Amino acid sequence: MLSPTEALSRILAGLADVAPLPPERVPLQAALGRALAEDVRAERPLPPFDNAQMDGYALRASDAPRSGARLPVAFEIFAGDDRSRPLPAGACARIFTGAPLPPGADCVEMQEEVVRSGSRARFRRAGETGRFVRRAGADVARGSVALPAGLEVDAGAIGMAAALGLPELPVHRRPRVGILATGDEIVPLGRTPGPGQIFESNGHQLAAACAEAGAIPVRLPLAGDDPASLRRSLAAAGGLDALVSIGGVSVGDRDLVRDGLTRAGARLDFWKVAMRPGKPVTFGRWGRMAVFGLPGNPASSLVTFELLVRPALRALAGLRGTGRMVLRARLGAAEEKPAGLTLYLRCRLRRTGDALWVDGLRTQQSGHLTSVVGVEGLAVLPARATRLARGRWVDVILVRPP
After folding, report:
1. Using CA atoms, how far apart are residues 138 and 280, in angstroms rounded to an integer?
2. Where along the chain do its domains lie?
3. What is the mean pLDDT of residues 324-334?
């Protein structure tokens, strides 16, 4: 079996020819959370003109060579005013934050350092060229790269684009991901389960996980435990960028997904990973489509999605890395595990003193839905270990802020 690290490396290498997906131009608000497909260069400088950094008085520094200089106030300038009116020699101008510096001025003195008496201003200290002046292009020079390719667009990037006058941004297309739940025992919401049946839930949780990862989930028809039903559901996956099936990838009599994918034309790379939960995991390619077969237990499907599918979807979307932070924390209780498997302990985090502590959820049973509700992190218990003492330091993959 592959280790989780080896499996992820194989997945990312296997998608190198299709990741990232092609670019498209979208309105600013639609670009949030997506990866820039190309450098965005500034066609105008930021700031576009010299302006006042704070409320005060604009002057020539040479007109106030020492403290106590008195200058007449020639006029007032507000943000949005015309900046073409020159400052008379030997005078100053009342100016407000963001207002353009009048031609001739090279300094702004904050109002707290100026005593105003009628139409004259006395400066408590000597003028200094450039003081409290935002120079044109000091933030972004004309022609420079304002937003680099590969950047994950956040609120600040959208503000930058708007300040440059850009109504759209070039971003990589979001992957469209088919979600295929399988099994005779599951029924869709809205239908009454029969004896031995349950509501289908994995597809809903993985569709939410896809959306959180920046992908577009597409729910495919449920597939029963027979080849004909599986073929019909797989036929609905045409044109997608990725397919995530749930259940049917182990070795039971009715685990038909691996064989069904192969018969449909998929080429599978691996189907077991040395991890718990989630050992039976399949990855391969079906033409240009990435194919993932995840186990059917709720915790197994969600953990394997987090560790193996989510980074792949981010790569398709042009986003860097996993998007998750790894912290060091101490185990709040002793843990036992089988040798040879990396165990991912669903947990919450707490801070005591100078350390973060891991508290495993009440249950770690992969079939219990309570084991995937409110998870803040996945504590990584190494494959070689069998018993880990309370207080041991471990890596924790932070899946949401505690």
Report:
1. 55
2. 4-22+174-316, 23-46+138-172, 51-134, 325-398
3. 97
